[in-house]
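Researcher: Here's a chain I'd like modeled. Treat it as a single chain, no partners, no ligands.
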Amino acid sequence: MNCPDCQSHKVVKNGHRQGKQSYLGRECSLQFRENPCPKSYSTEVKKLCVKMSLNGMGF
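Model: Modeled as a single isolated chain. Structure tokens:
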């Protein structure tokens, strides 16, 4: 496994976050997960929210 920031192969395990293994890049000190979860809503949901807001509807 390589660090996504510095591409170094020097990584160590660094606990668990949200049920997934967390890693630490030894050269750049970046904390990361192997398969991170998306942090935002999909484009379709965003469009629906804007449409509902413009129509005066609640969420």
